[in-house]
Structure formats: structure tokens, C-alpha cells
Amino acid sequence: MSSSGLGLGDFVDRTTAVKIVGGFAIALVILALIAYGIGIEKIRGELARADPRWLAAGCLSTAVGLVAWAKAWQVVLRVVGYRVPFRKLVVTYYAATFANYVTPLGQAGGEPFIAYVLSRDTDASYEDSLASVVTADLLNLLPFFTFAAIGTIVLVVRSTLSNQIRGVAGVLVVFAVGAPAAAVVGWRSRRRVGNFALRVVAPVARRSRFVSVEGLRDRMRELNTAFERIAADRTALAHALVYSFVGWLFFAMPLYFAVRAVGREISLFLVFFIVPASTLAGLTPSPGGLAGVEAALAGLLGTLGGFTFATGLSIAIVYRVASYVFAILLGGIAAVYVVFRS
């Protein structure tokens, strides 16, 4: 661990705290309005009958999924020369997940912050941390789209896709093709991309006392070196990819358990489509996509699962308690531990 230690201010300042609290407040109000429009009493009745054993299974699945993703992280870190004890890295990963889940738009671009947490809590440099985090996230995209593709193919074969859902499936296909293509193009053009980035930030750097163009160039050179070391070890990447797939499987399963919790049934193939599709709603400007994900889940479950919207939103709430609220609670404990860890 860095000798300077971590302070609470490294995780959140007053402005960020206000944004987080405000984001949660607005999202909860929106969620309450959605529930009111569907029928509070109907939703309350569904939730009252929910089996807590299935909820517990969903929480356990979330915990296992995050541990698997932390393991993928560890594999990638080893490639760049850092052997962090797994027990320590799991706690760091949970703390970083907490920061990602509570920050508005954190899901859309939390890698720099996660890399910062990792570099401060281990011996890894920021550049190596960022390269490992970005690589692990890119690896996680493959199982994301694989599960989505499996679900989409099954739904197409069964001809159960409405025009609206076909649009969602189309977006997933675009992401499935576009994201890997963008990654390949970015990798092959990494030097030109880096030079372009330097030209963009150079005017700001020249007016700043804290950064310099030469310093930025050195950091980008170190980052590129880290990426090249990772890309050269295909065995390690394949090893990490296995853990990514395991993590995604356990990330999706809480939805299945949530459906069982309210006494209903659902196909796993449908789960494999709905979870990635609803994750796109996580890009909404609220902490963890709160309200947006629940609304998307209720709509998808109602349209594809044949549930009423009251049942769909009830399932979404149980699912989010198991996959989001539970992760925040565990991550919050981990964040406190990381802050005060000696």
C-alpha cells in the first residue's frame, strides 16, 4: 500500500457527496412515481409474498460474481508485474465497485477512479492500474454480449420479439459489433490517438502548475507499455476471460432468483437477454442507473415474460436489492475498511 495512505477525501469530496445524495433522492422520487402509476398496493402485495430465501440466493450470487471479476482483475495485474494478495484485492474491488455504483454516471466511465483506488491501495502505478482496469472491463464486454446474443437468438427463434424489443435487440447487436471494432481500431491506432489527446490537452497543461505536456507524454508512454505487456500474454487474457464469464453468469442469476422469489417462473435464456438489455439503462444519469434500470426491467419483464407491470416492477425491485443495494452495502463496508487499512 502507498505509504501516504488513503484519506476519506480521496474517495469523496463535499461537492461529489451532494451530487450523490441528490442523484439518489431524484431517482427514488422517480421510482416512487413509477410505482404509484402502476399501483402501490399491487406492488406491496407482491413484495409481501416474496420468499427471502430466493433473495438471499440472489445476494450470494452477486457476491460470487464480484469475486470472480476481482479474480480476473488479479490475473491481468500479474501480467504487468504486480502480485497483489487476492484477499486484499477483493476488498479493493468491492470498494471501487461501491464508488462506481453510488456516483452518477459512474457506470459510464468509472475506470480512471477505480484505477486511482487500486494504485493508492497497492504497489501498482496509476498507469498499470488503469491498463489493467480497462483491459478487465473490455474482457467483461465479451460475456456481456455473448449472453445477450444467446438470449436474442432464442427469442428470435421463438418469434417473441415485438417491434419495440427488436429495437433493443438491435442496439445490443450494434454494441456487440461496434464495441470490439472500436477496441481493435483504437488499439491499432493507439499512437495516433495518444498524439491527438496530447494536442487537445496541451493548451490546458501549459497553463497549469500541476501538469506538463512532457509529463503527460511520459504517462501515456507508460500506459501504452502496460497495454502492450497485457496484450502480449494471451494465455493470461484467456484465463481472465474465464473469470469474466463466470462473473457475468452470477451477475445475471439474481434476476432469475428474483422471479422465483415472487413465485413466478422464467427461462434462463430470457434472463440472458433482459439483464444486458436493462444494463443499457444503467447509463442514465443517476447512481447505478437507479429508476432507469427498474423501469426498463419492468417493461421488458412485462413485454417478454408475460407478467403484469406490477409483478415486473416487484421483480425488478427484488433483483436490484440483491444485485445493487447488496453490492453497495458490501462495497461501503469495504470502502471504509480500505480508508482505514494500515
TrEMBL record:
Family indicated by similarity: Belongs to the UPF0104 family.
Transmembrane region(s): 20-40, 52-70, 138-157, 169-187, 236-259, 266-284, 290-310, 317-340
NCBIfam families, sorted: flippase-like domain
Localization of this protein: Cell membrane
Source taxonomy: Archaea, Methanobacteriati, Methanobacteriota, Stenosarchaea group, Halobacteria
Key words of the record: Cell membrane, Membrane, Transmembrane, Transmembrane helix
Membrane topology per record: Multi-pass membrane protein
Extent of the signal sequence: none
Entries under InterPro entries matching the protein: L-PG_synthase/AglD (IPR022791)
tRNA processing is among the record's keywords: no
GO cellular component terms, A-Z: plasma membrane
Taxonomic source organism: Halosimplex aquaticum
Protein name according to UniProt: YbhN family protein
